[in-house]
Amino acid sequence: MKSLYRNLGVALLAACSMMACQKDVLNKIPLDSFSDQSVWKDMKLAEAFADFQYTILPNPGHYWDKLTNRSWALSSACDEAFNKFDDYNASIMNSGSLTPDNLNNFDIWQETYKRIQDCNTFLSKIDNVPGDSTVRSRLKAEITYLRAYGYFRLISDYGGVPLVTKPFDLNSKFDMQRSSFDDCVTFIVGECDAAAAVLPASYANSAGELGRATKAAALALKSRVLLYAASPLWNPSNDSKKWQLAADAAKAVIDLPGYQLYTGNYADMFTTRNPELIMTRAGSKQYMWDAFQGVEMFMAPNGYHGWSSFAPSQNLVDAFGTADGKDITDPTSGYDPQHPYANRDARFYSDIICDGLPYGRAEFFKDRYNAGHSNVAEMYEGGLDSQQGWDTWNASLTRYSFRKYQDTTYNYNVETQTNKFWIIARLSEIYLNYAEAQYQLKNEADARHYLDLLRHRAGIVNDLPGTLTGPDLLKKIQNERQVELCLEGHRYYDVRRWKIADATENKPLGGMKIIKNADGTKTYSYIKVQDRRFLPQHYLLPIPREEIRRTNLQQNPGYN
Predict the structure, then answer these.
(1) CA separation (Å) from 65 to 61, 62, 105, 284?
(2) In the chain, what is the greatest distance between 2 CA atoms, to the nearest angstrom?
(3) Which residues contact 367 (CB under 8 A, 6 or more apart)?
(4) Which residues contact 410 (CB under 8 A, 6 or more apart)?
(5) 8 Å CB contact between 46 and 122
(6) Are the beta carbons of 380 and 365 closer than 8 angstroms?
(7) Spatial separation of the C-alpha atoms in residues 412 and 297, rounded to whole Å
(8) DSSP code, position 195
(9) Do 1 and 121 meet the contact criterion of CB atoms below 8 Å apart?
(10) Number of neighbours of residue 70 by Cβ within 10 angstroms
(11) pLDDT tens per residue across span 102-137
């Protein structure tokens, strides 16, 4: 534990990147020499220690060696996206070669338990720290929420895990038993309720406290936990009581005051603060070494000098319907495979950069204009954004790039990144949680209603027909989650909890090849970008072998 406190100066700086910095703290003692005794005698230092535990949440940065920050990588580890640079070792997931020895940077076991150990230490010490009791209570509730979030991440990946609520010391025994998944869910739900009972609805200094946990954040986590627990992977008997708990938890968030669906420009929802956002984890340009860590740099197409790092798959593109809300497979939708980007769901144009779509401000890309082109994406063979164009090593192999989360109001080739956030929870997810639970409870009209609220917000005028029922309605719920929540870390877990990953992940990941003909027309054809393989044991990750050896835990089925 001593080494932890020697690094508390780093913790303080990291805390500043999440919210307003406590400047008086920085002047007390040298940042590299905090001790156990000094931290737990000073409420400001204890608060900085608590702030550092927010690192258990995913963030918007792209760190190649950051084990717990899989925000973007979850997309390339499922049918949503492709990462040509194999960041976070997603290729191991996609190739079906996963073992307890090779999970590498995709594994979160050790790093998550480090944060849980810190949370346990904090909760064991904070009551004896002199200072304002109101601050103490709030910090305890924040840490309770963060520890619950850490356990939720663990059970989502591994199933039931050891529930450790007391800090380890040098005399601790590390032989332990895994709690059942349901017992872990019960614990997490209890922690969420306890945190929600204390956490404020909002903070008076909203600008300075952005990213701090609220009552809604705790209840949103509870909603997601209970939805997962009710899903087929963990509820094979389809116990309606579990679905009722999930419905009630979602409705409790929906009924909270102060949150509403964002009705402005859809793309802006992911770059500006708005009343749909329930919980976010922020980054700060002050602590970014240059634009290379910015979302725009690693997401934009190669012809704009971006990296196309996480590229949308054709599988995802085909999930977006037409402007009237119909699936592109519906013969009445008017979808034309030789004009595939015409008349699509408005969210498609906000989330995806495709051939022929303008990107960013023209004045930021003068070199394209100087070369006789424009800021319109050229994904066709020979175009600026193709494998034959500029910066070819960064070309998207799917011929798409993500537009979502990108702030196009500044020049990322010149400026360091703007302040960003990763969405931990937003109201639309809760609507989808509620719709799914209501469907399973046979309340299909309610399920359609909440889907329609999201579809209307996206510009789809028509309500879902009352004849859309049964398995077809479930497919629509799943499709709406795939579209509305793309690139937010949900799809990876959704296909697993629904027990459909053996279908969605056992097919090639696709892209589009575009040929520009002599007369200016274009020809479109599907291509295979990567073979994918998913085995039955892959519904859960293996516990790292090193951890099995150290603790004698039972390994997940199917892993030797």
Answers:
(1) 11, 9, 7, 19
(2) 78
(3) none
(4) 418
(5) yes
(6) no
(7) 6
(8) H
(9) yes
(10) 23
(11) 988 889 999 999 999 999 999 999 999 999 999 999
**Could you give the C-alpha distances from 91 to 78, 475, 488, in angstroms and in order?**
10, 28, 20
What backbone torsions phi and psi does residue 344 show, to the nearest 5 degrees?
Answer: -100, 165
For residues 201 and 138, give the distance between their C-alpha atoms in angstroms, rounded to a whole number. Answer: 12
**CA dist 221 → 129, 211, 267, 322, 447 (Å):** 29, 15, 24, 32, 21
Interior CA angle at 144 toward 195 and 541, to 5°?
120
And the tokens for 95? Answer: 């190739």
Q: Once rounded to an integer, what is the mean pLDDT over residues 366-390?
A: 98
Q: Are strands 401-402 and 421-426 parallel, antiparallel or unpaired?
A: unpaired
DSSP-assigned letter for residue 462: S
Contact (CB, 8 A) for 310 and 83: yes
Contact 294, 416 (CB under 8 A): yes
| Interior angle at CA 455, CA 398 and CA 477, nearest 5 | 75
Is the distance from CB of 384 to CB of 378 less than 8 angstroms? yes
What is the Cα–Cα distance from 531 to 400, expressed in whole angstroms? 18
Report the predicted TM-score, pTM, of the whole model to 2 decimal places.
Answer: 0.93
- Per-residue DSSP letter, 335: -
Torsions phi, psi for 362 (to 5 deg) = -55, -35
Q: How confident is the model at residue 417 (pLDDT cuts 50, 70, 90)?
A: low
Decide: helix, strand or coil at residue 90: helix
* Cβ atoms < 10 Å from Cβ of 380: 23
Q: pLDDT tens for residues 289-320?
A: 454 568 898 899 999 999 999 999 999 999 99
Average of per-residue pLDDT values in the chain = 91
Q: How many CB atoms lie within 10 A of CB 461?
A: 9
Token pair for residue 175?
Answer: 């032989």
Residue 213, burial from CB neighbour count under 10 angstroms (0-12, 13-18, 19+):
buried
Give me the count of residues in the chain: 560
Contact 158, 540 (CB under 8 A): yes
What is the pLDDT, as a whole number, of residue 284?
Answer: 61
